[in-house]
Amino acid sequence: MQAFTIDEDNNISVVASSKEATNGGGGIEIFASAGELAALAAKWPGTRLIEIWNSLPGVEPVRRFTSKPVAVTRIWKSVQYLKPASGASGPRVASKKGSAKQKANRPAAQPNSKAAQLIALLREPQGATLKSIMRAMGWQAHSVRGFISRQLGKKMGLRVRSFKRDGERVYAVKG
Q: Could you say which of 49, 84, 110, 130 is the most buried, measured as most Cβ atoms within 10 Å of its Cβ?
């Protein structure tokens, strides 16, 4: 039966069996079911569950969970998709260091999409005013702000600056 190990740095590994997992070192905890993970999580602070979740590949990072059982359920479901690593490097699958890879793999804007059009406006040397973006995109102000925050900032990882020039809101992105 497949089992999972978690070390002090919240690195989660997949191993073929619980026996194989016991050959690890000190500070490694083993779980093979959602119940065992819940028993371990009962003695952990909530921040550790957040760190574990945010270190898993392919998940949307969170700032908090509504409860520990919710966190345990989400983590358990997510680790089911992890595969054991083969080779001499060991079975390490998910680690905190993987978040740099996640940022590098963020989606790029498709050509001729709304995101690509907006990025082109924001890359102008002076940036783009809120009003000019609303005119160009045919959106209302709250839609522009939401799209910049969610799509460009969080999903695509672009750093969009917002500032006022002559009393008017201006957005700009470098690069």
A: 49
